[in-house]
Amino acid sequence: MKKVLVPVLAATFTLSSFNAVMAAPKESSKIKSVEFLGMDAPKTQQEKAELMYSKASVKVTYNDGTKKTVPLSYETLFKPGDVINGKIAGVTMNANGQVMTKSNGTPYVSTAPDMNSLMKVPGLPENTYYLISHYESMPKNENGLENPGTMSLSTVKMDPSTGQLTVVDIKPIDFSAVHGIWKPCAGLLTPWNTHLGSEETDPDARAHEKNPAASAVTNFMKNYYNDSTITGNPYYYGHVPEVTVDAKGATKVVKHYSMGRMAFERVKVMPDNRTVIYGIDSNPGGLFMYVADKEKNLSAGTLYAAKWVQTGTENGGSANLEWIKLGHATDKEIQKFAERTKFSDIFDATDDAVKGKAEGYKAIKTAANGGKVEWVKVKPGMKTAAAFLETHRYAAYLGATVEFNKMEGLDFNEKDNKAYVAISYQEKTMLADPTAPADDIQLPKISAGGVYELSFKPNRKTMDGKKINSHYVPVSMTGTLIGEDLAAPDADGNTANVDKIANPDNIVFSQDMRTLFIAEDSDKHENNYTWAYNVDTKKLSRILSVPGGGESTGLQMVDNLDGHTYLMNSSQNPGYVGYLSGLPFMGKDNK
């Protein structure tokens, strides 16, 4: 986001919202429904510059007919740069386990926290938990090189009487076993209690090969390994990392090469613990599905890409989805390719259309090559390498739809068998373009973007008639909650309707509250917001405001952590890690 930051004012924090729920006597009546009562957009300069805050509330209706309204509030766990147990939050390490510092000895600190995974790990003391947090970007090193990304592991204590969380320790996670972490963005806690993250960009291997000395990957690896002679390898980055944590706080990290290489956002593991659905945070980008060979094990599987078959243009558009198999592989197999393969081993490529046509190349358009059309041909024996190391190029090559504009977070509604996916901008490659190599998506321009609903059916077939071994195959996609562009900016400078979502990014769904939570990364709203959208009543409520210039990030829905409920929510630039308090616990004996 390119905005001018406004001063951040201190906020007063209280536990009143927690006490309002938790101090009430327990009775056997169960919650029937919740309704979020939204807050106004910030109006005063103080509100616009305020520390992340909420003036929203939640109305709880019980089965016996009684109601209770509880205020919500935002609680900060820490800010990047805070010292916790003698350690600084938001720092990064090099491959030797040393905190990376500036020439004056002070550490580089990220101002861009993102994803959170608050987890309960067997063997920890009572009311003690771990929190994994992403930091999407680090300041550039003073020598001009790219700084490695980072994740942190925090130790969190809960006050069981109020639900208040406190971070008592923090440390960066070691990624030296996987060549460091490249721009980690969104993620989730898996059903098997590991953290599944993302690397948000896939460095262009073709451009790197033309000039490796000047590439960002080379600069990154020189810095990470403290080795000025190193040449980078783009195929090490653009993957899904998985982090396992034990009771002693030891972490084990792998990257899932068999899930493809692309600009990952939030992947979603479906209830079968095998199928994973993900959109890609690039323009243009595609929609992908991975079906693992075994439950709770993402080290081997089959990768598919979607084909958009448009059926309508209203309210964000609609389409049926067909699927193209890209290939089957294991992590180890693709990692070996990554270690020894360069772009020209996989593809013949040219930007010359005359040559491309004459020599039987295929025209494609992806986020690589500067988003320009290129002509490519897969070399003999390299289809597997193409599918898993050049996933977007190969998907476009086979005819999958690579035209979505920043497809972001995705989550699943188990009761209705529906998923929700955010698309930040409905523009550029999502509009009609008769000059493009492919033009599957032809929709009206909506710069504010929107949230789309996916429907599923089991055991579908690919476009060439091969069975897909999953009960969670998306078969249609339709706009469900769409932003509204303004013809002219309003008095506060908003260029999209301030009472509707704009440029949705992170999304998570609460199964218990039947509510989709949506975080914005918008240049259309002067302040970004987090929203609550009830999928039954269709009510949209603004529940949190981020300081001007900041992005709402890091959503995680924790419906039940030892009888308490949390919506984890961070922000970038300015950076905060925290959660929304006051949410009701939807289990028994909760009144």
UniProtKB/TrEMBL annotation:
Q: What is this protein called?
A: DUF839 domain-containing protein
Give the range the annotation lists for the signal sequence. Answer: 1-23
Question: InterPro entries, per this entry?
Answer: PhoX
Q: Which UniProt keywords apply?
A: Signal
UniProt superkingdom: Bacteria
